[in-house]
Amino acid sequence: MAGVVAAATFLAALGSGLMAGLFFVFSAFMMSALARLGAPQGIAAMQSVNVTILNPLFLTVFMGTALLSLITGIAAIWNWSAEGSGWLLAGSLLYLIGIIVVTMVFNVPLNDALASVDPASGEGAALWARYLDVWVKWNHVRTVAGVGALACFISALR
């Protein structure tokens, strides 16, 4: 594996692992903890999380890993006969589809809907119940995709 592609793969593995860990925390206990607060407090807390998470460090890891996945995926296709190319392409697709696409198509619209409701309203309570069900299911997908991408990128480096 060429030096630049190997470095990109290593960094993509790190980024995938960081994102998988973040999503795991939300799937494993964060959302359950917020659900225990009751709708108004849970909504307010998640609204704060959704605003706070959009910071340069998070966006660098989230989008930087997407860029690295795109680069490594193209490199895998370009040099398909190279050892580890299948793993490289699989890791790239898992991150790009399982994290980026799922986030944009499913989680972000739910976050946007949650941002627009009054936490103390009946509308907010109804949305919160749906949010806890649907958002968390898609977050599980992101968690598994992140772990899968990490494993594939590591396998590509071997």
Tell me what the structure shows.
The protein has 158 residues and is mainly α. It has one domain. It has five helices and no strands. It has helices at residues 3-36, 39-52, 56-78, 85-115, 122-157. Helix 1 (3-36) runs antiparallel to helix 2 and helix 3 (56-78) packs antiparallel against helix 4 (85-115). The chain is elongated, with a radius of gyration of 18 Å. It starts with a helix and ends with a helix.
* Total strand segments: 0
Count of the separate structural domains? 1
Distance N terminus to C terminus? 10 Å
Helix proportion of residues, in percent? over 70%
The chain-level mean pLDDT equals 97
- Determine the number of helices (DSSP H or I, runs of at least 4 residues): 5
Class computed from helices, strands and strand pairing? mainly alpha
Shape: elongated
Task: Present the secondary structure layout.
Layout: H1 3-36, H2 39-52, H3 56-78, H4 85-115, H5 122-157
Q: What are the salient characteristics of this protein?
A:
mainly alpha, 0% strand, elongated
Summed up, what is this model?
The protein is mainly alpha-helical.
